[in-house]
Specification:
395 residues; single chain; 0% strand; mainly alpha
Length: 395
């Protein structure tokens, strides 16, 4: 941490304390990130339990993303202003409580409300990433950020794979209970390990929210990172949140557990993150993002073919995850280093990404209902085109 901290802080000189601390942050990130996507592989089971069609409950996955965006908007900027140790502890307790309520929900409305609250409170990773970037040596900053991002995507994969398997075996409610236990354990352990900090800002606590428009307006690099990631994340979210509907329906007819195993392709992201960090440190964020968009554009027609050919779906899944994580490492590193308020800038960046993802998911559900899997692929293509074109035409 900076000299404004009052407690001991792990060294970032490559020693063991720094390695252990970074590993703990990555584990905490994995668990909390998984909470956002917990409902996606369970949608067929939730629909069956509540007597609904699977396509009629896809909006719950969108609620989780909107909740996360809301939490980022109000809680993440506090990282520039308050002691993160008690904040991480309180948010972990709130997430645990909301997940417990979700496990006991008696209908889709109550479940959606609990998922919204849990997702809003599970913003701990975005309080920790700016701290990692601040402490990392300049020539290894992207690699340190990438280590945390690898944890994030590992959590997303675990939520899909383990969520599907556990849900199929024991019911979807047990999945939420297990997530609550893990969140409590890792969240409190991370809070305990964080260095103590003095209050680092003045004025109202929510002043970081009001500063976001001006920060975006006066930082072209941040604005570009936000819009591009919104396009990339939206394309990925449209495809990935709808994938369980494709795999459990015609022509594949897979079980929820088997469909959940498809999420193992998401481990591509965890493997690519360290490589992407090295490429950003060496060649710069712009080149990495450009290559990531090209790879994502290549994956969309493969996803369309995957509606009938499983092999095409395999290749597309690897490509979209590699593109997403490379883009994320590059764009987030750029967002964290273009302003003097990294936590607030990170809020703008991640809110933009999750807002784009939530909007794409909310459109993908009706698109699947009316036009099937090709409609979902069209949504992904539109989001990618919009994300790139919007930044290409602005100076």
């Amino acid at each position: 941490m900076s000299s404004r901290g009052t407690g001991p802080a792990p060294s970032e000189d490559g020693g063991r304390p720094a390695t252990v601390f970074l590993t703990l942050i990555a584990l905490c990130t994995a668990v909390t990130a998984g909470n956002i996507y917990l409902a996606a592989p369970l949608l067929p089971l939730i629909a069956r339990d509540f007597g609904s069609a699977p396509s009629a409950v896809t909006w719950i996955a969108s609620v989780a993303q909107f909740g996360y965006a809301a939490g980022l908007l109000f809680f993440a900027p506090l990282g520039d202003r308050v002691n993160r140790r008690p904040l991480v502890a309180v948010l972990s307790l709130a997430t645990t409580a909301a997940l417990t309520v979700a496990a006991a929900a008696s209908g889709t409305g109550a479940l959606a409300a609990a998922v919204f609250v849990a997702s809003a409170a599970t913003v701990v990773p975005q309080l920790l990433v700016p701290m990692v970037a601040e402490r990392a040596p300049a020539d290894r900053r992207a690699r340190h950020v990438a280590a945390v991002i690898a944890g994030l995507f590992t959590g997303i994969v675990a939520a899909r794979v383990l969520g599907g398997l556990v849900g199929q075996a024991f019911g979807w409610r047990r999945v939420f209970v297990g997530a609550a236990v893990l969140t409590l354990a890792l969240g409190l352990a991370t809070a305990f390990a964080l260095p103590a900090e003095r209050r680092r800002g003045t004025g109202p606590l929510l002043s970081g929210v009001t500063a976001l428009p001006g920060l975006m307006r006066h930082s072209p690099g941040l604005w570009r990172a936000c819009v591009r990631q919104a396009g990339m994340f939206g394309a990925w979210s449209a495809l990935w949140t709808s994938l369980a509907l494709l795999l459990t329906g015609r022509p594949y007819g897979l079980s929820t557990a088997t469909a959940g195993l498809f999420g193992l392709f998401g481990l591509t992201a965890s493997a690519v993150a360290p490589l992407a960090g090295g490429l950003v440190d060496r060649f710069g964020a712009e080149k990495v993002v450009r290559s990531a968009y090209a790879l994502a554009a290549f994956s969309v027609p493969l996803f369309w073919l995957g509606g009938q050919a499983m092999a095409a779906l395999f290749v597309a899944a690897v490509a979209i995850h590699a593109a997403l994580v490379a883009s994320h490492v590059a764009n987030q590193t750029l967002a964290l280093t273009t302003t003097s308020t990294p936590a607030t800038a990170n809020t703008a960046y991640v809110v933009s990404g999750f807002a784009g993802a939530a909007l794409a998911s909310s459109v993908a559900g009706p698109a699947f209902t009316h036009w099937g899997w090709p409609g979902v692929c069209a949504v992904a293509a539109v989001w990618l085109a919009a994300g790139w074109a919007a930044t290409a035409v602005r100076r």
